[in-house]
Amino acid sequence: MELLSLDDFKNTKIDPNWVPFDFLLHVLDVDRRKLQKILCKKDHTGFKLRSKFNNNVGLKRKRNLKAVEEEDDGDGDRVASKLKPKRSKKQEKSVCPIPPPDLPPQFRKLIFAEMGGRGSVLMIQKTLFFSDINPTASRFSIPFSQVKTHDFLNKAEAKELDDKNYMQVRLLDPSMRGASIVLKKWFMGSSSLYVLTNTWNPVVKKNQLKKGDMVQLWCFRVKSQLWFALVKL
C-alpha cells in the first residue's frame, strides 16, 4: 500500500475548531479514498474488497472514537464534551416546583387568628429605591409591570381609582403596627402605577427602611375593609 504524501492533502480545508481527533479522522478518510482508487485500478470487479475495507475502516473508526472518549487527558475531555449530546432546556429545568411565597407566621397569626382577615394575596415584591424612602415624596410606588395581581380591588374600588380619586386603606407595617394610609392610581403616559402615600414617611422612619431593602406588599380583607401588609425580607 502506498504511503500518504502532501499531495493527498492539497484540497484539505482545515477547520480552526478541529481537535487532534478531527485531524486523525481526516487522515483516515484520505487514506481510505486513496486506497479505493488503487483497488479500482487493479480490479474493476473488486466490489467485495472495497466493501470489506469500508467495514474495517468503520469499525476501526468506532474503536478509535471509543478510546479517545475514555482518555483522561485534556484532549480527550474536549472531544468527549464535544460529542456529548446537548440537553434540551426542558431537561435542564428543575423538576421540583418552587413553592409560592407565604406570609411570615407572625403575620399570619395576627391577620387570620386575631384580626379575622381573609384572602391574602402577594401584590408585589420589590427592592426599595431612593424614591421610595425620599421624605420629600412620601410615597411607596407599585408599578403595574411588577404587580402580580390586580384582582385585589372590587369593581367599585377599581372605578374609584380609575376616576383619579383616592382610597383610605389600612396598612400593617413591618413591625405589625396598623396605620391609615392613602392608595392612589397614577397615570403616567402609557404606563400606570399604584402608590401608597400621605402617611408613608412615618412608616419609613419607624421601621428604619432604607434603599436596597427587599419588601413584599400583601393585601387582604378584614370584613369589607381593604388592608395591606408590608413585610421586610
From TrEMBL:
<dbReference type="Pfam" id="PF03754">
    <property type="entry name" value="At2g31720-like"/>
</dbReference>
<keyword id="KW-0238">DNA-binding</keyword>
<dbReference type="GO" id="GO:0003677">
    <property type="term" value="F:DNA binding"/>
</dbReference>
<keyword id="KW-0804">Transcription</keyword>
<dbReference type="InterPro" id="IPR005508">
    <property type="entry name" value="At2g31720-like"/>
</dbReference>
<dbReference type="InterPro" id="IPR015300">
    <property type="entry name" value="DNA-bd_pseudobarrel_sf"/>
</dbReference>
<dbReference type="GO" id="GO:0005634">
    <property type="term" value="C:nucleus"/>
</dbReference>
<protein>
    <recommendedName>
        <fullName>TF-B3 domain-containing protein</fullName>
    </recommendedName>
</protein>
<keyword id="KW-0805">Transcription regulation</keyword>
<keyword id="KW-0539">Nucleus</keyword>
<feature type="region of interest" description="Disordered">
    <location>
        <begin position="68"/>
        <end position="99"/>
    </location>
</feature>
<feature type="compositionally biased region" description="Basic residues">
    <location>
        <begin position="81"/>
        <end position="90"/>
    </location>
</feature>
